[in-house]
């Protein structure tokens, strides 16, 4: 589970939890980590899950994990960063909710995120993720909008 370890071993974490109004919609989380860069390909991000280089502004799927990364350039110092988006933490276990058959793990992100069906009136609780202060800002890291 390299990507998981990698995802949690971050200093430059940004967590922009997109608050989806509809509860059956997959939640997604974003964070910035320093990009992998190959010596022979400066100015591009290295996508380890694809074993290829990616230009700034382009994104790639993190299959077999459910997620997507985008190569971005930091506003302050032009460092390359990787904006990682994934489904975030799983909700707290709730016997009144089950994984929906609508969940399609082979679909592209974010459609691969788990979808839960709950009994009427039951809401899943998600663990709080602390948002660290003073994270780097990236040009193409769009702030999540309240409503699309
Ligand atoms: C899951 O998603 C994949 C890729 O989009 C698609 O080919 C497949 O038909 C989907 N399966 C279901 C059960 O919806």
Summarize the structure.
It is built from one helix and eight strands. It has 148 residues and is mainly beta. The site of 2-acetamido-2-deoxy-beta-D-glucopyranose (NAG) has 4 residues, from loops.
What this model shows, in words?
With 148 residues, this protein is mostly beta strands. It is built from one helix and eight strands; from the N terminus they run H-E-E-E-E-E-E-E-E. Strand 2 (45-47) and strand 3 (52-54) form a beta hairpin. The longest helix has 7 residues, at 2-8. The chain is elongated, with a radius of gyration of 16 Å.
The total of beta strands comes to: 8
Mean pLDDT score: 78
Give the distance, in angstroms, between the N- and C-terminal Cα atoms.
33 Å
- Structural class label: mainly beta
Biggest sheet strand line-up: 1-6-5-4
Q: What overall geometry do the principal axes of the alpha carbons give?
A: elongated
Instruction: Report the total helices.
Output: 1
N-to-C order of helices and strands: HEEEEEEEE
Largest sheet, if any? 4 strands, antiparallel
The whole-angstrom Rg is 16 Å
Contiguous uncertain segments of 5+ residues? 1-24
Strand content: 15-25%
Measured as a percent range, the helix fraction is under 10%
Ligands bound here?
2-acetamido-2-deoxy-beta-D-glucopyranose
Oligomer: single chain
Q: Characteristics of this structure?
A:
mainly beta, 5% helix, binds 2-acetamido-2-deoxy-beta-D-glucopyranose, four-stranded antiparallel beta sheet, 148 residues, single chain, elongated
């Amino acid at each position: 589970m390299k990507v998981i370890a990698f995802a949690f071993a971050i200093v430059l974490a940004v967590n922009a939890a997109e608050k989806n109004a509809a509860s059956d919609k997959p939640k997604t989380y974003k964070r910035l980590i320093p990009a992998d860069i190959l010596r022979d390909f400066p100015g591009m991000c290295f996508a380890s899950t694809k074993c290829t280089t990616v230009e700034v502004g382009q994104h790639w799927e993190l299959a077999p994990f459910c997620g997507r990364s985008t190569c971005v350039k930091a506003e302050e110092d032009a460092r390359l960063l990787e904006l990682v988006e994934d489904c975030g933490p799983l909700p707290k276990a709730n016997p009144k909710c089950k994984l929906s058959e609508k969940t399609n793990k082979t679909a592209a992100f974010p459609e691969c995120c788990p979808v839960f069906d709950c009994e009427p009136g039951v809401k899943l609780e998600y663990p709080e993720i602390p948002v660290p202060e003073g994270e780097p800002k990236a040009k193409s890291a769009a702030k999540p909008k309240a409503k699309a």
